[in-house]
Amino acid sequence: MGLLTGLLTLPLAPARGVAWIADRLEETAERETADPAVLRARLAALNRALDEGEIDQERFELEEERLLDLLEGRPPGPVPTHPAPPPPGSH
After folding, report:
1. % the chain with pLDDT above 90
2. Which residue intervals are annotated with compositional bias (Pro residues) in the record (predicted)?
3. Is residue 1 assigned to a domain?
4. What is the distance between the alpha carbons of residues 70 and 25, in angstroms, rounded to a whole number?
């Protein structure tokens, strides 16, 4: 990149920085979503939440199906309206 190009595109630097950060966040999220250990931990936390009465059976089944789809490499179904319980050890 030449000096003139660098000076002319300098106002775009913050936007390029934000785009770079967004790309890194997306890569990390995809990597964590595809990690079987993370998915198993989320399934365990989901089962505990059901056992402790924190969620109802319907919500449990929706989230369980979504997590199992991810674990088996299928595209996930619809995302539930309430977030899943956090994985163990994240408190």
Report:
1. 30
2. 75-91
3. no
4. 19
C-beta of residue 60 within 8 angstroms of C-beta of residue 42: no
In a domain, 48, yes or no: yes
Extract the tokens encoding 80: 């539930």
28: its two tokens: 């990390």
Asked if residue 43 is part of any domain, the answer here is: yes
- Bigger pLDDT: 65 or 16? 65
- pLDDT tens for 38-75 read 889 999 999 999 999 999 999 999 999 998 988 887 76
Determine, yes or no, domain membership for 12: no
What's the domain count of the chain?
A: 1
**Domain span holding position 47:** 33-75
